[in-house]
Each structure stands twice: as C-alpha cells, then as structure tokens.
Amino acid sequence: MEEERMPPVAGGGEEEELTDFSFDPGSQRELDVETKCCLTGEKVGNSFSRFPDYTTGTMMVMSKKAMIEHLRAGTSLQKFREVLVKRHGKGIIGEYAS
User: Fold this and answer.
1) How does 63-89 read in b/e, with b if 16+ C-beta sit within 10 Å?
2) pLDDT (tens digit, 9 = 90+) per residue, 11-21?
3) Smallest Cα–Cα separation from 38: which of 93, 78, 95?
4) What is the pTM of this model?
5) Cβ contacts of 55 within 8 Å, gap of 6 or more
6) Exposed (0-12), middle (13-18) or buried (19+): which is 36, by Cβ within 10 Å?
7) Count of alpha carbons within 13 angstroms of residue 12, beta-carbon side
C-alpha cells in the first residue's frame, strides 16, 4: 500500500513548490528568436543557448560552436550580458534580475 503524501502547507516551515507555469497573454509575451548568433553574426538554424533581450523583444541565441566554448568556460551568461551592454549601454544590466 502506498503512503499518501500531503502537499506542503504555506508557512509550515517547508518551501512551497511553484507548479503554475501557465502563460498569461495579458502580462507576458513570447519573444521572437533571433536568426543569427549574437556573438559571431553567423546564421543559426538551431539555437541551443538563449537569453532574452527585452528591449528589442527578441531572444538572443548563440551558435552551437560559441555555446559549447562558453558553456565549457562557464562564461555564457557573461557573454550574453556583454552583448546587451554593447546593444543598449551599461544601464540595461540593472533591468535584469541577476
């Protein structure tokens, strides 16, 4: 016989897991995916690494080669942030959560 588990109660000392991943078109919108690598400018058929550019309303992408290079080095987020600064200036970074 399986043991029945109760979901965590808010305020009960346990973290409440967020399970609502619904899309609200009134407050959210899907970003268009860019067709070129944001680092090299080469056309990208399939994007493996993406990062939002809310100012332009697009999702920046890296080519497979650039993605592998920067994931191995642990610098992919740093590179995306550098592209944002080049596109929009240093103040853009303050608009992102982390």
Assistant:
1) beebbeebeeeeebeebbbebbeeeee
2) 555 556 666 65
3) 78
4) 0.68
5) 87, 88, 92
6) middle
7) 9
Look up residue 88 and give its two tokens: 């929009």
- Say yes or no to pLDDT of 30 above 60: yes
> Which amino acid makes up residue 61?
V
Mean pLDDT value of segment 69-98: 90
pLDDT, the chain, mean: 81
CB-CB neighbours of 59 under 10 Å: 17
Distances (CA, A) of 47 to 3, 20, 25, 60, 95: 43, 26, 24, 9, 24
* The two three-digit tokens of residue 51, written as one number: 């990062």
